[in-house]
Prior knowledge:
Elements: E1 5-9, H1 13-25, E2 29-33, H2 39-49, H3 51-54, E3 60-63, E4 74-77, H4 93-110, E5 115-118, H5 123-134, E6 141-143, H6 146-161, E7 168-169, E8 172-173, E9 181-182, E10 188-189, E11 192-193, H7 200-211, H8 213-221, H9 228-242, E12 248-256, E13 262-273, E14 276-280, H10 287-306
Parallel strand pairs: 1-2, 1-4, 2-3, 4-5, 5-6
Antiparallel strand pairs: 7-10, 8-9, 10-11, 12-13, 13-14
Helix pairs in contact: 1-2, 1-9, 4-5, 5-10, 6-7, 6-9
Amino acid sequence: MSLPKVTIVGAGQVGATAAFLMALKGVADVMLIDVVEGIPQGKALDMMHSRSVEHFASRVSGTNDYADTAGSDVVVITAGLPRKPGMTREDLLAANGGIVRSVVEQVCAASPEAVLIVVTNPLDVMVDLAWHVSGMPAERVIGMGGVLDSARFAYFIAEATGAPIDEIDAVVIGAHGDTMVPLPRFSTVRGVPLTETLSEPEVAEVVRRTVFGGAEVVSLLKSGSAFYAPAASIVSMVTAIVGDSGAVLPSCVRLNGEYGLSGLYLNVPTELGAAGMRSVRVLDLTAEELEALHASAAGVAEAVASLGLES
């Protein structure tokens, strides 16, 4: 039985880690592609050397030629410049925009039926750009941001409550950046809303750490940015798509009236399947939560407009 084929564009920390996790879990055969000769080939070979130790059947290959990516079921785009200390996601806009344009043109030519998962920052804007360049249905062009933000929220909730991580459900929506909207009312510990588990100041602190979780990692590393949690988040989305599972994961998808928003990409709870986005789950937000989401959306819309993209 053949495994699905997943191409990961960018053999840096995020892309290579995602490839290895997919191999270990038997999710797919992975084609790792990068512009730097030798890097994807070397990392792929190193991973394959571990097969007899980890006993996985998946194959990981490396290439610099987009022809080798043909026939991919999913293409994950991690290529781009990482954030550096003091750099906002918006600072990356112009530089990474050019990279994403080039990558999307080439992967779509090779795999016109693939689902695209964009990881490059600033995430929400890069997904919108990828959709415009690809010419694909919006359902097949999505972004990984909400899964990561929600994973960070869950971790900080676990640290604050002492509860096991598998007894926590956390939800973050909105832009993947400082205007993200963690939702304590919809996040639970053993089924009990966080707002009923922690005091208001404790909830506020957990939310604060979530919003600045990525920046905290960047600050500690001094060079580079997070890659373990982003890679794990990618794999969860790919698993849902290639398995056509219908799992509901916070994903960056193009809204069409949901939450009173249209014509832009934003992270919301999304049912994922083989064709990408199946449907958006609309939560019953309070006026305050909805206002925060719309404020987050406004920042994304402004950044998209700066690229000259039409909704």
